[in-house]
Specification:
This protein has about 375 residues and is of the alpha/beta class. The chain has two domains: about 240 residues, Spore Coat Polysaccharide Biosynthesis Protein SpsA, Chain A, CATH 3.90.550; about 90 residues, no CATH class. The chain contains 15 helices and eleven strands. Strands 1, 2, 3, 4, 5, 6, 7, 8, 9, 10 and 11 form an eleven-stranded mixed β-sheet that branches. The longest helix has 22 residues.
Length: about 375
């Protein structure tokens, strides 16, 4: 195995056109020692023929077909076949800046205590234009919990970590530390920006295939952070596609993402309390948020009884006018909440805000429990 070989794992399903662009962004990397493992998760389009043609011209590109089993199973298949010192993940509708691998390899070589490095990302709309140049902290709301606080313990100018980038990244930093506790409050990592070492990957093992169809990434990154220090590069190294209907972060997957968030943090908080350096109040608030988030997502699908259970649990975990107001919203006739959402975001937000006032009234007359 050659030194600094990077295995790039690309899971895909019926995205031949986008996939070609993703692979091309790997071929264009300034770090030349890479292999691509495309795992086709049961595509019925011309993915096979397209990748086969690319493989003929560049044997570093490998194509693997499997019956449809989900993105986690596809990534795990790629991990099992990876030969590199490092592994990077790339979704088939995203693409990389040409310097991404070179910069991340330099960071992991300069700071061997790090098991993973990830970056910021630029959001690209359906029209191909940049919708947001720094999208990571907008997409992952957990960052807002640490505004004005030190999330990382180490802070190193990129030009010191990777001197070849002097002049390109003069004001950006590699931030490092043990952030397992902070990750309990919510995901901070986007998978297509990640590079992980083989040593750390051996400890983490792979993605949880039971968490599907969406939201499995958080569990993987949380376990990666549990095993030691990680690093964040304050640069946008990928072009992240937004606004497409087949994305696993699409609105229709909201319930699954919320459920998988709750499934991920509950056992970790229960079984790993000694490793988590957060006040109990913060943990209670995180669990309350998880139940409230799931409750609202269930409301939007019309699953009122299940929504009420989670909203009541949220309120008992931590007294909240939002949970109480959403509970009141769940008492509307079946179909009302999805209809409000369908009519328009402003209409739903107005109804939701009004019922939050009702929630305030409800919560002020209880002893911190919503026994409804």
């Amino acid at each position: 195995m050659a030194a600094d070989l990077v295995s790039v794992i690309i899971p895909t399903w019926n995205r031949a056109a986008a996939l070609a662009k993703a692979i091309d962004s790997v071929v264009s990397q300034t770090h030349r020692n890479w292999e691509v493992v495309v795992v086709d998760d049961g595509s019925t389009d011309d993915t096979r023929s397209m990748v086969s043609k690319l493989s003929e011209t560049d044997p570093r590109i490998r194509y693997i077909y499997q019956a449809n089993a989900g993105v986690s199973a596809a990534r795990n298949c790629g991990i099992a076949l990876a030969k590199g010192d490092f592994v990077a993940f790339l979704d088939s509708d995203d693409s990389w800046e040409p310097w991404k691998l070179e910069l991340q390899v330099a960071c992991l070589r300069t700071h061997p205590e790090l098991g993973m490095v990830w970056t910021d990302m630029a959001a690209i709309g359906p029209d191909g234009a940049v919708a947001h140049p720094r999208y990571l902290k907008k997409m992952y709301s957990a960052y807002r919990r640490f505004e004005g606080k030190d999330l990382f313990s180490g802070n190193f100018p990129i030009f010191e970590v990777a001197p070849q980038f002097t002049g390109r990244f003069s004001d950006q930093y590699l931030q490092t530390g043990d952030i397992f506790s902070q990750m309990i409050t919510g995901n901070l990592v986007h998978t297509s920006t990640v590079m992980i070492t083989r040593e750390r990957l051996k400890l983490v093992k792979g993605f949880n295939e039971d968490l599907k169809p969406s939201g499995e990434d958080y569990d993987f990154h949380l376990r990666t952070c549990r095993e030691g220090q990680v690093g964040f590069l304050d640069v946008a190294s990928i072009r992240y596609q937004i606004g497409m209907p087949d994305q696993l972060t699409h609105r229709t997957y909201g319930v699954h993402i919320a459920k998988n968030f709750l499934k991920t943090i509950e056992p970790v908080i229960r079984n790993d309390r000694q490793r988590i350096h957060l006040d109990q109040q913060v943990l209670d608030g995180t669990l309350a948020y998880a139940h409230r988030w799931l409750g609202e997502e269930l409301l939007l699908t019309g699953s009122l009884e299940e929504a009420r259970d989670h909203l009541a649990t949220s309120f008992r975990q931590q007294r909240s006018t939002k949970a109480a107001g959403l509970y009141a919203l769940s008492l509307l006739p079946v179909g009302s909440v999805p209809l409000l959402r369908k009519v328009g975001g402003p209409t739903y937000r107005i109804a939701r805000s009004w019922l939050l006032y009702l929630g305030l009234a409800l919560s002020s007359q209880t002893d911190g429990r919503l026994d409804l």
